[in-house]
Write a structure and sequence with these properties.
Blueprint (H helix, E strand, L loop, with lengths): L1 H8 L2 H26 L7 H23 L1 H33 L4 H24 L19
């Protein structure tokens, strides 16, 4: 019995699934570690992730409408990824503006970014699809080489 548990834990499939599941938590925590080492406490990472993922899904889903089915299917995932990264950078710029130019507390500004990300994604998704908390009604495209 114990040998089966140990074999299951140290199997390649289990380790691959752990890596796949922990990546969305591991990458922002590494970003928080880097910003903490620079002397900046970045509490707004969750809000940045929410906004980035939401913008990425929207641009990927609407690429077929904007560029046609053939071109949209080819560039939709890449456009979604690029716009998601751009949205995260703009959200980080907003956090920096609050702290550096307006003199707001960095922790309170980060909490505000988290609340903005949570509320804005649900509100905009409800306006676009009439569905709360679920993007399955959008025809989002998949990256061709990523298998989940």
């Amino acid at each position: 019995m114990f040998e089966n548990v140990v074999q299951g834990i140290f199997s390649a499939a289990f380790l691959a699934s752990i890596l796949r599941v922990t990546t969305p938590i591991l990458l922002p925590s590494l970003g928080a570690l880097i910003s903490d080492r620079a002397g900046v406490i970045n509490i707004g990472l969750e809000g940045m992730m929410l906004i980035s993922a939401f913008v990425g899904v929207l641009f990927s889903a609407y690429a077929q409408d904007w560029f046609g089915p053939d071109v949209g299917a080819a560039i939709g995932p890449w456009l979604g990824m690029g716009m998601g990264v751009t949205a995260a950078m703009l959200t980080a710029l907003l956090l920096a503006f609050f702290h550096l130019k307006l003199g707001a507390n960095l922790i309170l500004s980060g909490i505000a970014i988290n609340i903005l990300g949570s509320a804005a994604t649900v509100a905009i998704m409800f306006e676009l699809t009439g569905d709360r908390g679920n993007t399955s009604t959008l025809a989002s495209l998949q990256m061709p080489f990523i298998q989940l």
